Amino acid sequence: MHYKEILKRIKEITDRISEKESVEFINLIKTSPRVYVVGAGRSGLVAKAFAMRLVHLGIKVFVVGETVTPALREGDILLAVSGSGRTAVVVEAAKAAKAARGKVAAVTSDAQSPLAKLADFIVIIPSRIRPKEHVHYEVGELLGSSLTPLGTLFEVSTLIFFESCVAELMRQLGVKEEEMKKIHANI
After folding, report:
1. Which residues does the UniProt record annotate as the domain SIS (predicted)?
2. Rounded Cα–Cα distance for residues 83 and 120 (Å)
3. Which residue of the set 24, 74, 155, 168 is catalytic?
4. Phi-psi region of 127 (alpha: psi -120 to 50; beta: other; left: phi over 0)
5. Helix (H, G, I), strand (E, B), or coil: what is residue 35?
6. Does the 18-64+75-179 domain belong in CATH 3.40.50.10490?
7. Whether the Cβ atoms of residue 106 and residue 94 lie closer than 8 Å to each other
8. Where are the beta strands (DSSP E) in the chain?
């Protein structure tokens, strides 16, 4: 089984996430009137998992594209998750958020991507895979690494990053797990 090598690579990635970006990201979440999340595919699932935890913490959060999501207002933040930073639906949502005078926080692996260039704030998850025979991120990701295909390292590392943010938000906001359980889905 490959789990030891995968875990080793995930630890290498998460060890390289900027502490400064992490602290600023948590402060941004705490100070935003409302948080919106967007992502596509598995990155979207990771974004939704984080949104669920933010709800448990009592933070007003919405998922872009859901029928009950209200309009983003000035001062709200869009948390846009895309490994490549080029996913069309995520980049377009970021453009719309900027047009509505919201802030954009990008979580991506590419600081030079279109998403990163739109963002007011960036967290880099340094998971880019560039096999020797593939110089472009997308080609390497689509073909997969020998161990983790199609962006898995980005998604799993991002989920771990988000869960560490939840733990820190719990500490800073003084929210206990028992309180979160009261808000957890029961139907």
Report:
1. 25-175
2. 17
3. 155
4. alpha
5. strand
6. yes
7. yes
8. 35-39, 61-63, 77-81, 103-108, 121-124
In this structure, are residues 13 and 153 in contact, taking their beta carbons and an 8 Å threshold?
A: yes
User: Is 155 a residue of the active site?
Assistant: yes
DSSP string, 63-104: ETT-TTPPPP-TT-EEEEE-SSS--HHHHHHHHHHHHTT-EE
97, 89 Cβ separation under 8 angstroms: no
How do the pLDDT tens digits run along the chain, 187 residues long? 778 888 888 999 999 999 999 999 999 999 999 999 999 999 999 999 999 999 999 999 999 999 999 999 999 999 999 999 999 999 999 999 999 999 999 999 999 999 999 999 999 999 875 444 444 444 444 444 556 665 689 999 999 999 999 999 999 999 999 999 998 888 8
CA distances from 122 to 9, 16, 63, 85 (A): 22, 14, 19, 11
